[in-house]
Amino acid sequence: MVSIPSPHAPHVTGMAWSTPLGTELDKVWCQLLEGASGVGPTPSSYPLRTRLTATVPSLPLDEAPDQRQLALAVRTLQAAFADAGLAPENSAVTLVLGTSYGGHLDIPFTSSLEWWARSSAERVGHPHRPITVTTACSAGADSILLGAELIRSGHSEICVCGGVDVVTSAKRLGHSALGTMSSHGLRAFDEDHDGMVLGEGAAFLVLESAASAHARKARVWALLSGTGSSNDAAGMTAPDPSGESVVLAVSRCLAGSGFGAADVAVVSAHGSGTTVNDAVEATSLTTLFSGTDLGPVVFGTKGALGHSLGATGAIEAITVIMALRDCTVPPIHGLRSPVPDLSLRLPIGRPLSFSGDAGISLTLGFGGFNTCLLFTNTRVDHE
User: Most buried pick, 17, 81, 202, 320, via CB within 10 A?
Assistant: First the structure.
């Protein structure tokens, strides 16, 4: 039996990203499938747990962090508008821009997160004030969730939503002090995992109501068939070890979507590589899919692209859409010996194929922000 998405599911009519492996959608995706990584040493005058980061090569590291973030946002927004066949000055569009702290911790308080968002909109020629989302590492995913709700409620016909973040000295020092950074590389769900590697990037999805997409005869990448979120309220940085709130976020995402756990063919895990987060995710995913026959393929891209904090949820949303298109996921970079408490299928050393038309992107942020996005292939809509 084929599950049917809600007729109110927002259509993804445009996508763009800027990553440590480049900017073109297909070229970056092919590199991920080939096992490439954008992680490498980045100089620092401070003592750090690691010098490894994943930076966007076309952004000069000697520029001020706020200007690097602005440049990254502007060019990725322009690419998303172009991919959707929309003009940035279109007054029917609502911008929803997410970030964690961006470069705000490294610059005087004369700047602000709203300054970054408003400046990004002005630079691309958009006429309206954007909505700014700052829910730590889930900001990119939450921007997409908010955009979907604006469309479902009838508030907006088109939303361009996603996240942007850059590597800065303050973030590197902060995560060194927290002990969350790996000394040798991000190895999600590997028995030898010991932390994450900071990354940077940007990604935006153009979400559009079905009526608007059909009227424009827009090319549709996928449907955003479900969204869900929850909060641990367990601590500033550490998640609730039970995983119950992660399960709640996914359950809320599936509820009303027309899909159940057995329909999910692929999962983009948060996969941060820290022992605590990997354990919580392994517990949650096992609970969610223990009653299904085969269970989904689980993959993650932070080992190749780094953890881009407020941008990661938007970047990973695109990877789910690309995976659904090709029915293939890239290998989890650095994974050799999977942790025993995650029994679902993992791509180790090479891409892994799957069958199915529904996939979820799961993002877990500091402060207990858990966000789940369910994408479905457009061929489901025609069966």
Answer: 202
Which letter does DSSP use for residue 10 in this model?
A: P
Task: Give the pair of three-digit tokens for residue 217.
Answer: 């005869």
What is the structure's pLDDT at 271? Answer: 96
Residue-level pLDDT at 358: 97
Q: What is the DSSP letter of 294?
A: S
CA distances from 82 to 128, 251, 309, 371 (A): 18, 34, 25, 27
- Residue 241 domain boundaries: 226-376
Q: Identify whether residues 19 and 92 lie together within a single domain.
A: yes
Segments of the chain with pLDDT less than 70? 1-7, 102-103, 108-112, 234-238, 379-383
How many other CB atoms sit within 10 Å of the CB of residue 326?
Answer: 14
Query: Is 22 in the same domain as 142?
Result: yes
Whether residue 210 is found in the same domain as residue 231: no
Predicted TM-score (pTM) of this structure:
0.95
Asked, for residue 188, whether it belongs to a domain, the answer is yes
Cβ neighbors of 30 (< 8 A, separation 6 or more) are none
